Every structure is written in C-alpha cells, then in structure tokens.
Amino acid sequence: MSAAGPAGELSGKRVVLGVCGGIAAYKAVEICRRLTDAGALVSPVLTRGATRFVGELTFSALADEPVRTSLLGPGSPEPSPHTSLARRADAVLVAPATARFLGSYAAGIASDLLVATLLATRAPVLVCPAMHTEMWEHPAVRDNVATLRRRGTWVMEPDEGRLAGGDMGRGRLPEPAAVVAELARLLGRGESAPGRPGVGAENLTSPGAALAGRAGQAVLALAGIRALVTAGGTREPLDPVRYLGNRSSGKQGYAIAAELAARGAHVTLVTASEVPPPEGMAALERVATASEMAAAVHAAADAAHIVVMAAAVADYTAQSPAATKIKKSPGPMVLTLVPTEDILAELGRRRRPGQVLVGFAAETASGDRLVALGRAKLEAKGADLIVANDVGGPEAGFGQDLSSAVIVSRGQVVELGLVDKRVLATRLVDMAAQLLPASGRS
Ligand code: CTP
After folding, report:
1. Same domain membership, residue 292 and residue 174
2. Judgement on whether residues 182 and 284 belong to the same structural domain of the protein
C-alpha cells in the first residue's frame, strides 16, 4: 500500500484511467502506478493526443490491462470497449483533462473511446483539468466545467505553479498523490457525485462536504445549500417618467447566481436588472426600488446559507416622488433625497450564525486604496467577504464583461486583477463555500 490513499480504499476498485494529450500526461504514469499500489485494478484509456506524449507500453506495463486507445481497430481488443469498460468501472478518473476533452465531454460528443466510455458509464467520474491559465479561465472552458459539475462530475481544481513552456499560473495538474488521494476519498466515503441519481441534498451529511474550489481538492456541488443573490441597479422614481438610477447591468450578480446554481445550490435571485436572468434559478423576484429590494431580500434571507449582495442599491431616494410629470421651469431645480436602508449592513446585524454574507464595494480606486476601501466596508457592513471593484477604468466595471477586483475577507486578500465576471464568480463562490460551517446547517 502506498501513501497514495487510505489503506484498502481502492483495493479491488476498477478504475478507468483516462489520459488526454497534454504535457501533464507524464504525471499520469505516476498516477497509474499509485492507483495500482493502492489496490485498484486500472484500465488505461489514452486519447490519440496522449499517445504522442507518453508511451502505451509504459501504461500497459503498470496497469492491469493493456492500454486501449480507440473504439475500433487495433487499439481496441474487443468489439464494444466503451460499454464493457463503462459497466465494469467503479470510477473513471481523467488526468490530465484537456480543454478539448472538457468540451467534447460537456457537449456529449463521443468522438473517441474515452468520451464514449464516460457517456456510457454510471460510475462516479473525477476529472482533473490541466492547461494554461488563459485557457482555464476562458469562458468556454468555464462553461464546460460548470456544465459537468452541474451534471455531477467531480472536477478537481488545478494547482498554481509552473506550466508548460516555463509559464507560471493556475492550470497545473495536482500532484499524483493528491489526485489518487482525492479519488480514494470520494470512493472511500461511498458517495456518488452530487447530482447523480439518488443523491440529493438530504444525503449530504453536512454543508462542509460542499466545500468547493480549493486547489488540489475536488469541487463538490453545493447541493442542499440555499443562496440568495441580488443583481442590477435599483431605480428610484422622481416622477412617473423619470428615475434616479445607476449603470449596473446585473452581469456580475447573474454570473454569481449562475455559478451557484451550476453547483447545485437552490438560488433565489432578486433582480433590479431588465436583462433576462440566467437559467436554473429556484426563485426569481423582480424589483425596481431600493425599498422593494430590501423587502424581497429580508423575506428570503433567513432561509439562506449564503447571501450575495451584488446589486448596486441606491443610497438615496426622492423624499416625495411627484405624482405627475415634473414640468421644467426656469432656474435650478432642487430635489430632496432621503437615505435608503443599507440592506447589507442590516443583513450583517440580523444574520443568523453560520450564514455567509458577501458584499461588493464599487469604488473608483485601485491598488492598496481599493483594498483599504474593501476592508472598511467589510467591517462597516459585518460581511464575511467583500469584492472591491475598481469601476473607474475603461475596460472594467458596470456593463462590461470584465471586472478589476480584489476579494477581501477577514484573513485574506485575493487579488484577481482584470478578470471575466464569470471567473470572478467562480473564485467568489469557492471562497464563500469554504466559509460554510463544517457541520450542520444552522
Ligand atoms: N448596499 C446595500 N444597500 C444600500 C447600498 C449598498 O445593501 N443602500 C450594498 C451593496 O449591494 C454592496 C455594498 O452594500 O454589496 C456596498 O455598496 P457600495 O455602493 O459600494 O457602497 P455604499 O455602502 O453605498 O457606500 P458608498 O456609496 O459611500 O461607497
């Protein structure tokens, strides 16, 4: 028994090891060895690309069965290799998984033996992507990963570190020992992946099991977690035709709501945006003003494990909106505005133990000043996480696809720089999920 997994947990388990064509394929050799050391019966399946990086003979020598490389022909010893592999498997592990593979698997395109096997199997699947950071962060890849997670595939977050060609960043295949230990952990607990038939919120013993996104750990779904997300900019009426508004589009809140839903959370979206909301919302509340938003939020907040205030809420509203259209008159015009409720601060005061509270800080600042403003709002509002955004730049901010942001928590500052709002959503949901209590849903 090696140090790869807890003793006996892989013993007798039939594991299909899928290997895709990337430089990290060399680590799959070590993964194969560790799987067999841990007692697993390994059936290696290499894509055509993988055979250009690593030798079939190496895997055949280490594994329990000869390598299979194709659905038909010399790379396939039996007539229907995908169905026989799929039926016998206790688990399928794909390491490394390339962007091409993620795309084919998410789209259900069985263009090779590996994807065909995955489509035919009902066994738990652990996928370990490895690629350059830019590819990992590309919206197409993010979408494919979200799709797979929603369907119950376990997707391990890549590590940060040295990548092919000497580049540095996130996208590195976790160390073989970590991959094998993760598979052992998933199988050893006897859980099938969340989202697979028969496994629902009730069967997850604690939201702690829903921890997501730490490098080197599988991202588990947020099944059983209730999330409340606000999005868009509120509009305060001045008269029947005019309002006081802001430039928020709702894109960031929608990306967060979609990410939470993709991981299986039950999401209530309270939106002040006119853009159609993402799919998969459990409940949708459309509001216009800050006071309508406050009412909708307070009605849903008590039941929520995670609350994300991504909306740009007006700080002031007209004291007495005119009942009829205000006519122009010579000279300056004076409006009397009164403060609205600070919903996030009120949530901070009212929240129940264990609830994770996330706010935003829209600022026209960058660097240390942005972090300082984020920290100040974290304290002032009693939040656990604040996403401090620089909304002043030309490329990022309201209405754009990109955001220039840092995420501030009590112990951590995560600098994201200029990122796609969907990438920001993934990182934020990872961090929020890690703050959920380890046991019991309060
Ligand atoms: N927020 C809120 N209710 C308000 C105003 C803001 O809940 N009436 C929330 C926002 O949804 C966001 C956070 O508070 O999560 C910070 O909003 P922001 O507009 O950046 O800050 P303000 O608190 O309004 O302070 P200032 O405008 O002075 O920066």
Report:
1. no
2. no
- Residues 307, 171 within the same domain: no
Whole domain around residue 251: which residue ranges? 220-440
Provide the 3-class DSSP secondary structure of residue 292.
Answer: helix
Looking at the fold, whether 398 and 313 belong to one and the same domain comes out as: yes
- Does the structure show a pLDDT above 90 at 385? yes
User: How far does the centroid of ligand 1 lie from the alpha carbon of residue 342, in Å?
Assistant: 7
Ligand 1 pocket list (CB less than 6 A): 290, 309, 311, 313, 315, 340, 342-344, 359-362, 377
Q: How far is the CA of 346 from the centre of ligand 1 (A)?
A: 11
Q: Quick: pLDDT tens for 260-294.
A: 998 889 999 999 999 999 988 999 999 999 999 99
If you search the block for the tokens 């947990």, which residue do you land on?
9
Is 441's pLDDT higher than 60? no
Q: Among 13-17, 139-143, 199-203, 328-332, where is mean pLDDT lowest?
A: 199-203
Residues serving a catalytic function are 246
Q: C-alpha distances in angstroms, 197 versus 4, 128, 191, 193, 194?
A: 29, 22, 11, 9, 8
Query: Domain for residue 411, yes or no?
Result: yes
How many domains are there within the chain?
2
pLDDT at residue 438, rounded to an integer? 64
Q: Name the domain boundary from 213, 245, 263.
A: 213
The answer to whether the predicted template modeling score (pTM) of the entire model surpasses 0.70 is no
- Report the nearest atom of ligand 1 relative to the CA of 358: 15
Give, using CA atoms, the residue closest to atom 21 of ligand 1. 361
pLDDT at 207 over 70: no
What is the CA angle 391-392-396, rounded to 5? 55
